[in-house]
User: Fold these one by one.
Assistant:
Number 1:
Amino acid sequence: MIKPVVTALIAVAGLMAPHAASADIVRLKTGATLSVKSATVDGDSMVIVLRAGGDMRMPRSVIEAVLPDEVLHADAASTFTLSAYEAPKLAVQSVPELVDRLAAQYGVPVNLARALVTVESNYQPDAVSPKGAMGLMQLMPATAKYYAVADPFDPEQNLTAGMQHLKGLLDRYNNQTSSALAAYNAGEGAVARYGGIPPYRETQDYVRRILALAKER
C-alpha cells in the first residue's frame, strides 16, 4: 500500500525529532540500506527494529536518511536483540591484524579468513546488509545470538564468532572449503538439500570469489 506523502515527510523528519518515524528504509552513510519495521529517535541515537528480526540502537550520525518503502514484506520471527550499537572499538587499520590472529587462534586458514572478510564487508566493521547481516563477517542475528555476541559491530566480538562459525563448518564438511563457504552464505540446509553448493547464482559467485581471493593471497 502506498503511503501518503505526509507520512513520507514525517518519516524523513523523524531524524530531527524525538518520536517514532513512520518509515521502512534506513539508509546508512556507508551506502548500505536496512529494511525496517520502525525507526525511533532517542536523543542522539535511533532505535531500529529490523523486518528480519531483532532490533539495534545506532548513533544518528551514521544514518543518512529514513525513507518510505512501498514494498510489502513478510515478518520473520526472532528473539535476538542488540543491546546497543557502538562505534568500532579498534582502529580500522588494526582489523587486518585481528583477522589474522583470530583465524590462527580458531584454526581457520588465514588466507581464507582474509578473503571471506573482504567479500563479506570489505573490512568495514559497521557494514550492514539489507537482510540485517552485521559487521566484518556479516553475522545474522541468530548466529550472533548463538555465539553470545553482545555487540556485532565490535571487531573482536564479530570476528571471534565468525571464525568459530566458519571453523565449525569446515569441520562439518571435512575441510571441503567450497561446501563450508556455501553453507556460510546460503545455510547448511541448502547445502544438504543440493548435496553441495546450491544452484543459487549469489552463492556460486560468493564461493568462487572467496576461493580466488584466498588463492591469490
Note: The chain has two domains: 5-67, 92-216.
Number 2:
Amino acid sequence: MPTARKAAVIEDLTEKLTRANAAALIDYRGLTVAEISELRRQLRQREVELEVTKNTLLREAAHRNDMMELDELFVGPTAVAFIYGDEPTGTKTLNDFFRTARVGAIKSGILKGGRGLTAEQFARLAELPSRQVLLAQIAGLLQSPMAQLAALFNAPAQQLAYALHALIEKGGAGGTGAHAGGSEAAADAEPPAPETA
C-alpha cells in the first residue's frame, strides 16, 4: 500500500475509533462477499459501520488513541464494527447475525476510552437496556419521588378542607365553640336556634 494511502487509512481508523461508542473486532473467515454485504446493510440501520482492515493499520490507529494495551487483540483476519449509536442495539445485531450465519464470530471488543473486552463480555452488552430505555427509567425514577411528594403534601390539605367543610356544615365544632388553638369565627358564631316541640 502506498505511503500516502496508508497514512489516510490510519487517519480514518483513528477518527472512527475516537468517535465510536464501542467497536467489535470480528473474525470474518467463512463469510461470503454477499453475507458481508448483508451484515453491512443490517449494521448501517443501527448506526454501525463495518470495515475490513489490516491489523498493522488498526494497531497504529489504536496507538494514536492511547490504546497501546490492546495490541494483543489485533491478530488474525479482522473486520471492525464501529458502533456510533446505541451499544446494546449494535451488539445485538452482530450477535443475531453470527448466530444465524453459523460462521464468523466476534473475537473481542473495545469500549470508548480504550477498555478491551473478551468476546463473551462484548456479547453481553446486548443484554443491557438500550440508551432510550435507560433514560426513560431514570426519568421515571426522578418523577416517582416528586409525584409521591406532591401527593404527600396534597393529601393533608384535602383532608383539612374536608374537615373544615364538615365543621361549617355542622355549624361549629359540636356546639362547643373554639377549641385548642381554636377559631375566633367559631367562637363568635350565633348559637343554633332552639328546637321547637
Note: The mean pLDDT is 79.
Number 3:
Amino acid sequence: MLTAMEGPINAKAEQIRIKFQTLLDKTNIENPQPKDVKALADLLSGNKGLELWRDVVSAGYLAEVTVIKNARATPAVKECWKHRLQNLKKELGSDGAPLLEQLLIQQAALCWLKLNLIELSYSHAMKQSITLTLGIYWEKRLSAAQRRFTRACETLTRVRKLSRNTPALQVNIATEGGRQLNVSS
C-alpha cells in the first residue's frame, strides 16, 4: 500500500528515469552534443540514489556479446553459446555471490569462451599446411589464452578460499588460579 509520500516520490523517480533514457538515447552516438553529455552527467550525479547507471549494460557483458558476435559460427550456434556462457556463470555460483566473486566469475567465463574459440581456430589452422611462423603464432596465441583462463580460475579460487576461511575471533580470558580460557566466536 502506497502512502501519500510514496506516490509523488515514485512519480518523480519515474520522470527522472524517462529523462535519463532520453539523454542516453541522445548521447549514445558517435559524436553527441556536449550539452547533452553534460546534462547526462549532471543527472547521474544529482540522482545517485536511483543508480540510473544500472540500466546500461556492463562492459563485461558487452565484451561477451562482442566475442560471440565476432566468432565464426552460424547465428544459431552463437545463440547457443550465449546461453552456455550464462549457464556456466550460474554453475560457477554467480547468483548470490559477493560482487568481487561475480566479477571474477564473469572474467573466468569470458576467458573460457575465448580459449575455446582460439582452440577452434587453432584446430582449423592445423588442418592445413602452414608456415613455421604461422604455427608459432597459433601456439603462442593458444598458450596465452590458456594462461589467462588458468589465472582467472586460480584467482577466483583464491578469493573464494580467503573469503570463506576467515578465522574466528578468539578471546583469551584469564581465570582464577592463572589458568587461561580461549573462547572462539
Note: The radius of gyration is 26 Å.
